[in-house]
Amino acid sequence: MHYCIRTLKFREKSRNEKSLAQIFLPNQSKTRKFVSLNMFLKHKLHTKGMKKTSKSEMLDMLSELTQHLTENQCRQLMEQMTWKEVRRGEVIYREGDLPDQLYCLVKGKVKVYKDGVGGRAQTMRLYKPVAYFGYRAFISGERFLTAAAAFEPSVVVMIPLPLIISFIRSNNELAWYFIQSLARLLGKSDERTVNLTQKHIRGRLAESLLFLRDSYGLEEDGCTLSIYLSREDLANLSNMTTSNAIRTLSAFASEKLVAIDGKKIRLINIPELEKISKMG
Predict the structure, then answer these.
(1) pLDDT tens-digit profile of 19-71?
(2) Which of 46, 42, 264, 273 is nearest to 153 (CA)?
(3) 3-state SS of the chain: helix, strand, coil percent to 5?
């Protein structure tokens, strides 16, 4: 429950201190207060860095998970969780590793990928804050079948998976949360498999551009993707060679569907891109 986070925060502070929610958001309802506090803490994490962020503040970032936990489970979680800053391109886990942590991305962007034939990587999923990943292999009793790396400087929280499994066994609400999460991932994976195997090159690239828009949004100009990918990363996401990605993207630019400025891609004609994606 949300209240357990606030309770832990009060216990961590002295009696004379007020919680962050009381100081900054005194007149809001409990629901609005929690959401607004979460936004405040995300800004705080971005501006002051991880070294000055307390565990209670970090716990607030995990509200999607902690809302299903009891007060005692929240306390155990706060005691055992750790976090680290990840450099751009740094590997978080590798294919074949034994899973032992639930990862939560609270800042930055992360890709999950798999090395294919000839060493060419296939991007399977992209994550933005706040996202939980790395737990499927542990639940199924397997080693990692994929790898994960940061697209840009990121912050990842790590929670021991045995602790999460112990919570799941005694907490039906949390168990249902993970069942729903895995079901959604399976549905998206099925849809993506069909799209990447049946669509032509133009359709795959158009779909990838729209996928990036839906996943990361657009910048203030309303048309520039908020994620900057190398041509190789874009090719890996679209299941094509880098040379094909470069040629097809250049063709889109010449047709005034997109505008290219280095790694920046502006979506000029979204309806036409949607049509190309749908037609395949």
Answers:
(1) 333 333 334 443 333 343 344 444 444 444 555 667 778 888 899 999 999 99
(2) 46
(3) 55, 20, 25
What is the spatial distance between Cα 167 and Cα 271, in angstroms, rounded to a whole number?
46
Type and span of the H or E element at 230 = none
Determine the longest span between alpha carbons in the chain, in angstroms: 65
| HSE-CB for 176 with a 13 A CA cutoff | 6
Domains and CATH numbers, the chain: 2-69 (no CATH), 82-185 (2.60.120.10), 199-279 (1.10.10.10)
Q: Which residues pair with 131 in a beta bridge?
A: 105
Residue 112 structure tokens: 């999950």
pTM metric for this prediction: 0.72
Q: Which two tokens stand for residue 13?
A: 């502070």
User: Which contiguous run of DSSP H or E holds residue 45?
Assistant: helix 30-48
